[in-house]
Amino acid sequence: MDKKQGPQLIQDTRGGNLNLDDLVDNPNLEGFHIAAILGTVYGLMTDDDCSAFRSSVVKRTGYEGFLRSPSDMGSSVGSMLREKRDGNEWTGRSVADLVHKYVANQITNEEMAAVLAMIMVKGMATSEIVSLTRAMTDSGDRLDFSELTEQGYVAVDKHSTGGISDGVSLVLAPLVAAAYPQIIVPMMSGRGLGHTGGTLDKLESIPGFRVDLSEDEIRAAMLETRVAIFAPMPSIVPADGKMYALRDLTNCVSDSGLIVGSILSKKIAEGTKVLVMDTKTGNGAFKSKFEDAKLFAQLMCNVGRGNGLNVNGFITDMNQPLGMYAGNKLEVLEALEYLRGLHQDSDFMKVVYTLAEKMVELAGFAEENTRVRLHETITSGAAYDTFLKMVRQQHGDLASVRKLARLLHPTSILTLAQAGEYERINQVLSPEDKLYFTEIRAERDGMVSGFQLTSIGEEIRALGAGRYKQGDSVNPYVGLITAARLGQPVRKGELIAVVVNDGKKGSPEKIREYIHVSENYDLGTKPRLIKELVKPTAG
Ligand code: URA
Fold it and tell me: What is the pLDDT of residues 239-278, one digit of tens each?
């Protein structure tokens, strides 16, 4: 039988059900896995129990690395483990040292794995996360826009914890840049994570679009169009690249403090002064419970402020796809529809306008009619033009984007789907590839009563829209078109959704099971879209 993998064994240890026999002759175990197991146990057990456990692990594995003996606890990392185990807070100095030495390879992966595992058990106080964020930020370069900020320009950005059909950045970034000439938007973004999509993957569905911009290219973009969306470069927060890879290998990804440090250090290093957070909650969100989302948003705000950011956050709903389409190119097409002025009353645009207004306010440019100005920036076509300029500036094929808009004008993908014009959608998405369109229709008269959104996201990933490991390629064309929203009345046979697939990967039919229509749906239970505004309470 195959032996268990390291991350699973670390999880077993955390849950108190590690079987020591699983460690014997296990070729999947690296030293950092064993250090993480020992670090976990050290956080959970008394000294005596811990030493007995350590001896058993060492005996079964022949392990000779960090934490194999009590003397390791006297090292600098060992004393940090002891401090945390005993309920004391780490000083800013010790956290800075840890990060600095780890990036300089003076602290090993095994030592860091034990620290991460301890954090997973014991957590970190806000002051420790402030220090971690600062140390991570200081591990590399910071983008410098002083040439512009000295002239009164303000750098703004947003971050979303991720969801299904959350392509908000694609509309928001060009919108605020186009509406306010004193605003710059250096937006460092990510790739798809788990069941959620990533802004960079979406933009890369535009032929030629480059997200790997150099610092000079970003500075040039800020002077020219005042907006760019790009990937973290190796010179920015190297600590995050190294720590994230180890967190992934040791099952230490989900701690809120580590997540906040990872996100905020990159945002600070990209040079933004203003950050608006969109923390999603609901069955498609990483923080499915409202209380957890609120705690996370509060932590983001407090740690951000502790590092000099002007940050506020909204908690918004993720119990149904935010927009109409999910999938990489489909979400670019959706952004083009919004930027052309369609669907302005949609939930998607409500989130865009709410975040944009707050970004403008925190940047110091609020006016009585901020929303009117933002709306006019869409209807005048100025935001659309800025999007096109951003595409050209990042080497995307402008002709292909213009062609998409032309092929769709004056209709939308949704209207085409409702009319059954799948040939035309295939032409728009990818004339060279044969795509398949699996319809999901209401099986009864009633109201749309629920989306099992994480399962839907996982299925979209399985169709090829997302990855399972770093370096996997994504299929830009597959995804989901949803034609109905929660609480909407539907008749038996009415189109609810269309799964766009390549006929090979995934199980498009499965999504049918994840969208529910009931005879009775209490509209009073429909989740509110924008639930709460969160501001820093500390510092
Ligand atoms: N996004 C990040 O950048 N880092 C995390 O740890 C989680 C989400």
Answer: 999 999 999 999 999 999 999 999 999 999 999 999 999 9
CA of 159 to the centre of ligand 1 (A): 10
Say how many C-beta atoms besides its own lie within 10 A of residue 210's C-beta.
15
Residue 337 CA to ligand 1 center (angstroms) comes to: 29
* Structure tokens, 205: 């569905």
Side chain identity, residue 75: S
CA contacts within 13 A on the Cβ side of 241: 12
Residue 3 annotated as catalytic: no
Distances (CA, A) of 134 to 95, 241, 511: 9, 15, 43
Number of the ligand 1 atom closest to the C-alpha atom of 253: 6
Residue whose Cα lies nearest atom 3 of ligand 1: it is 263
Tokens standing for residue 73: 């606890």
Q: Which of 266, 273, 294, 461 is catalytic?
A: 266
Domain ranges across the chain: 6-123
CA of 263 from ligand 1 middle (Å) equals 5
Measured from the CB, is residue 262 less than 6 Å from ligand 1?
yes
Closest residue CA from atom 8 of ligand 1: 259
- The model's pLDDT over 156-202, given as tens digits with 9 standing for 90+, comes to 999 999 999 999 999 999 999 999 999 999 999 999 888 888 999 99
266 given a catalytic annotation? yes
* pLDDT tens digits, one per residue of 81-98: 999 999 999 999 999 999
Q: Which of 306, 255, 287 is nearest to 161 (CA)?
A: 287
Give me ligand 1 centre to Cα 37, in Å. 23
The pLDDT value given to residue 47:
82
Assess whether pLDDT exceeds 60 at residue 127. yes
Q: How confident is the model over 304-354, as pLDDT tens digits?
A: 999 999 999 999 999 999 999 999 999 999 999 999 999 999 999 999 999
- Ligand 1 lined by 162 (C-beta under 6 Å): no
Is 350 strand, coil or helix? helix
349 lines ligand 1 (CB under 6 A): no
Q: List 447's β-bridge partners, or say none.
A: 489, 518
Count CA atoms within 13 Å of residue 483 on its CB side.
Answer: 22
172 vs 348: CA distance, rounded Å: 11
